[in-house]
Amino acid sequence: MSGVPTASAALERDWRTPLELTVLGAIWGCSFLFMRVAVPAFGPYALVEVRLLLGALVLLPFLWQARDRFPARRWLWLAPIGVINSAIPFVLFAWAAQRAPAAIGAICNAMTVLFAALIAFLFFGEKIGMRRAIALLVGFAGVVVLATAKVSGLSIGAAVVAGAVAALLYGLGVNLVKRHMTGLPPAASAGATLGCAAVALLPMALTHWPTTPIPTLSWACAVALGVVCTGLAFLMFYRLIARIGPARASTVTYLVPMFGALFAWLFLGEAVTWAMVVAGVLILGSVAASQKR
């Protein structure tokens, strides 16, 4: 009889994990759609400030509950990690969303896993291995294909570079979190870094706040971006990491570009070009290869 609950729990995990990974991939895919819709009215700085502030507020109860584990010395790392891992990449992706289809940012975002491996190798002494080295080269080839492409006759190179730099900063942030925030409650840590990022970006947001009224749809997208795609998505992601480990949880990276392109096509009528498909295959294929043991 003792084996029945165990088997039942395993069966529940079997169907919950792919479902939650799919939902999280769809949520993060939506974030590029929301940025594409809201950024023309807000501008990158104001939009990201709203995103950071709302995301931090969602996670604030977890930070408050674990406040005793965040002494003053911890904030010396939390603040720069928040800027590197949230404020600057969010602004870069929002800036790119003004200049290129939503799918472009979603595809560039997939490079995070590869950049995390590269930075760990270059600066933290981790081995990279031949498979990951080849995967990095293939992934960068995908970025080159994307950067040299044109969509509707317009060059998207600058947007691709912005998205790639954002992914690079995410990769750096992953390594800093691993080395300086281990042992802290993940949701509380995310709330702390988002809050620090919001404070750091506030002067730029105030000086660049729109002078014209912001449409209701843009506000709705900004709120969804902060509450759902940042606050709630972080909670889902860290819960997945706790249950299935970081390696399996990171497979959500494969789903984000697919959902980003799908939603942009469905709701904005943005075309999916062959250059996007080829670049996506190269980048996601390289990420998948780099994750194999």
TrEMBL record:
SUPFAM superfamilies recorded: Multidrug resistance efflux transporter EmrE
Chain ranges passing through the membrane: 45-64, 76-96, 102-124, 133-149, 155-177, 184-205, 217-237, 249-268, 274-290
Residue ranges of every copy of the EamA domain listed in the record: 24-147, 159-288
Pfam entry (one): EamA
Compartments reported by the entry: Membrane
Domain of life according to the entry: Bacteria
Membrane-topology annotation of the record: Multi-pass membrane protein
Alphabetic keyword roster: Membrane, Transmembrane, Transmembrane helix
Main location group: membrane
Record-stated family: Belongs to the EamA transporter family.
Name this polypeptide is given: DMT family transporter
Species assigned in the record: Stenotrophomonas nematodicola
Lineage of origin: Bacteria, Pseudomonadati, Pseudomonadota, Gammaproteobacteria, Lysobacterales
